[in-house]
Fold this protein.
Amino acid sequence: MSGTPTVAEQAKPPSVARASGSMAIATIVSRASGLLSKLMLITIIGSGMLNDSYQAATTLPTMINELLLGGVLTSVAIPLLVRAEKEDADRGESYAQWLITMSAVLLGVGTVIAVACAPLLTAMFTKDSDQANPELVTAFAYLVLPGIVFYGLSALLGAILNTRNVFGLPTWAPVLNNLVMILTLVVYWLMPGEITLDPVRMGEPKLVVLGLGTVLGVGVQAAVLLPAMKRTGFRFRWRWGWDRRLAEFGGLAFWVLLYVGFGIASMAILTRVALNAEGALTAYNFQWLVAQVPYGVLGVSLLTALMPKMARAAAAADVDALVGDLSFGNRMSAILLMPFSALMTVAGLPIGLAIFSHGASGIAGGERVGMALALSAFGLVPYAITLLQLRVFYALKDARTPTLIQGIIVVVRITLLYGFLEFAPREKLAVGVSIAMSLSFVVGCLVGQVWLRIRLGRLRTGYTAWTICLTVVASAVGFGVAAGAARLAVHLLGTEGPVVTAWVELVVLTIVGLPLSFALLAVFRVPEVKPVTNKIIRLVRRR
């Protein structure tokens, strides 16, 4: 794992490229191990009612993980921590202690309330749904909801480490979570018997192992950050009382909680809609997992490295630097992610069949995941840009505007979800739910850009739009050629069976489409690609 800088080394922050690079390696391992755990899950328990019930129960802590670890709490905390580091004699240590104390108390109380209200939460997620067992969802919920406190503390500790220029370990921590989950699934598989669905028994060994193993992984993810905090020179102690800046954090936290509330409402309705068709919720969750792999490796690494930089520019009232960081982040998001969006569009069905059609899932389960992925992959770049735009508002210590934008996104999403529920065939509901999510991020991206234009002035939008157009053209041409090569390879090899054919198509599309797309960006002389091109040229000449 990446080493933790000493106190002296923290004085000089790493470059965005260096920080992003170190996080990308950790994120690749994290996403790969996470994908392996999900593949084992669908192989062992299938994509039917049991998995749908498990997915529904884990929606709440998983969603809070996405909202908090994905950046909401982190984005609020980093600007305040950077300011305290700049203003306080102890470089913000006492302020960080206050934040941890307050967050631990609030998260603890919130977790206790969530566990006590598990049956109500189950009803909220499964009402009028055909493909979930409410008693089983409730049983799983009692076991997995304590993970909320660990997700929240992991997010806050990661934010503190980021402000101290420690990026690697917070990115490696989820790997341990995934390893615990993999071990849990192995134990589950080796245990005799099955989870009974009628009646559901709370103390059933397999149910307890799967539920407690899930929350144990999250606990390990949070606990591993504590030694890293100590190595940076941070000494925690419970700090009570009041600090004037806590009022500022409290004002921001209100809007964060409202943001989370919008997210909970959105996911509750998405879950209820998806549970009207067998396997739709599982298919949606797994296509989202695949779509998050390139974003987690490239987008999150870029965003995490840019966030402290934007916070410092905002603290110094340097609007030009802040706009420059935003523009750079938008362009890099398109350059890095558009080819992967094209890959998932063209190879969505082969990905579903090659990876998710084994064991209890079957060909039908793999096709559901693949079609949902292929028809919703267009939302990857708007999703990344939307999250970056929200971070700019948080850097300006404005938590209100991101919440209002989130409200608009959620209204659009819910409208689309009920539209697909009303008009889409049940067997296509997984696709409809996935498309609704992607379209809502397209709307969020457009609204965020307009709002930032009003707030900050000129955003170099034309330059960003031109770069996005170039990435679309490069990806379309690259994967058009790759699709032809894949068909030729299948014909020449004479493959039989959908899974083998899917693997051949996936391999050819990947090894032809991705390099060709990035090569075309270099041919188009996209400025952000030039440093990589120059480095490759130097390596070739050296050889």
